[in-house]
Amino acid sequence: VSALLFGLIPALRATRPDLSTTLKDDARGVGGGGVRTRLRAGLTVGQVALALMLLVSCGLMARSFARLVSVDPGFRPEQLLTMEYRLPVSKYPEGTRQIAFHQQVVERVRQLPGVRSATGIRALPFSGNGGTATFSVPEQPKNAGDPAREALVNWADPYTFETLGIPLLQGRGFSETDREGAPMVAVINRRMAEALWPKGGAIGRKIVVEANPAVEATIIGVVGDVRHYALDDQDSYQIWGAQAQSPHIFNTLAVRTVGDPMQMARSVTEAVWSVDRDQPVWKVRTLHSLIDRSLGLRKFLLGLMGAYAVLALLLAMVGVYGVVAYSVAQRVRELGVRMALGADRASIFRLVVGQGMRMVALGVVLGAGGALALTRLIQSLLFRVPPHDPLTFLLVAGFLALVAFVACAVPARRATRLDPLSALRCE
CA 206, CA 223: separation in Å to the nearest integer? Predict the structure, then answer.
């Protein structure tokens, strides 16, 4: 459609030439008339404007992505191997047998050569597993009409915080004594502690997780905030319970290794089978790969938008170069007269470059206005970067102007090398 449209317009104009105007224009060396000159300039301005809009959007996405990948997830993902399994209820019907299996697996994996630490955790960060529950604080009764408080609830064993690298800020983590039949305990994250007890003193307080049935637990520790689903997660309340006090058939094994985690996959899997040779294990992968997967959509959009932006930039620069070069070719006699009358090369260079840069300046202004509207569409994909970020706009506009100057300077430099006598001989 584009080829037909932009090829059809000049073709139709060529079938109805105005011979008188054409001959007059040719005598003046204008070549094509003011209407076509303005049309070419208008298309070039449009190309520059569209290129700026795409470049600004790509720049915002790039800055957002750079800030996102620099976010601290709240744990150390390097050299962590993970795998999941689910025990058959028919074989492990009692909670005590389920917990015993989880503990045996962790202990055997921890004894493997090349393993620094291992842990069992119900919902591994970035795995997609997890859930929330409402909770209450007995000493802080809720007023009528107040929204229910929610927290991400997870279950961990005594090695979870050590293995994942989650910092323990206050109190203690879970121990072997936190088992079924012992008083229920919980560890909360820093944000929850600071929000509910801003003056400190969270350790020893009671919270009630309103599950079925409701569970009252004593807070024994405070840990750092963990990004659970994605790096751009909003800070949320997090409650960790002792895995041994809440038996479940599902579990995730996380193993911190000395070298490449995937090199340990076979031996870790065999350690699980040494406890039960019929137990299936799946989703064997590194925690780094889970984080990379969470960034997949942003990577794809950034690459796609970057490709379009580069293509638009190339087309705009080819357009600027083509219009300026064509203008120089049509003004050979005019430029020859100027040089014969004393114009130096610098003035000819400024004349030609100025013509092209005026189009670029108009395109930049129009493109900036369009970008202000366009960036609102990608606002939900940006992270800690405002959609109207002035630094991105200035950098992109400056880069575009620099590239456009080069595109104008090539034909302008050619114009300064004209021989006045050869140009006037054509007259």
Answer: 17
pLDDT at 5: 83
Quick check: 108 and 277 in contact, CB under 8 A?
no
Which secondary-structure segment (H or E) carries 23? helix 19-28
Helix (H, G, I), strand (E, B) or coil at 68: helix
Amino acid present at 342? G
Average pLDDT, the chain: 90
Give the gyration radius of the chain's Cα atoms.
Answer: 34
**In the prediction, which pLDDT does 423 show?**
60
CB 189 within 8 A of CB 243: no
Half-sphere exposure of 270 (CA within 13 A, CB side): 7
CB 211 within 8 Å of CB 133: yes
- Measured between alpha carbons, how far is 253 from 129 in angstroms, rounded to an integer? 13
pLDDT of residue 344 exceeding 90: no
What pLDDT shows up at residue 256? Answer: 97
Summarize pLDDT for 104-145 with one digit per residue, the tens.
Answer: 999 999 999 999 999 999 999 999 999 999 999 998 887 777
The DSSP symbol for 229 reads S
Helix H or strand E segment including 58: helix 33-69
pLDDT at 20 (0 to 100):
64
Are the beta carbons of 340 and 420 closer than 8 angstroms? yes
Q: What is the DSSP letter of 86?
A: E
Task: In whole angstroms, give the CA distance from residue 396 to residue 374.
Answer: 15
Check whether 290 has a pLDDT greater than 50: yes
DSSP sequence for 259-326: S-GGGGHHHHHHHHHHH-TT---EEEEEHHHHHHHHTHHHHHHHHHHHHHHHHHHHHHHHHHHHHHHH
Q: What is the dihedral sign for C-alpha 254, 259, 263, 267?
A: negative
Report residue 326's pLDDT band, with 50, 70 and 90 as the boundaries. Answer: confident
State the DSSP H helix or E strand holding residue 240, giving kind and residue range, or none if neither: strand 238-242
Rounded to the nearest 5 degrees, what angle is found at the Cα of 334, between the Cα atoms of 332 and 337?
110
Q: For residue 147, give the DSSP letter.
A: P
Global confidence as pTM: 0.79
Name the E strands within 96-232: 115-121, 131-136, 149-156, 168-171, 185-189, 206-209, 215-223
For residue 236, pLDDT beyond 60: yes
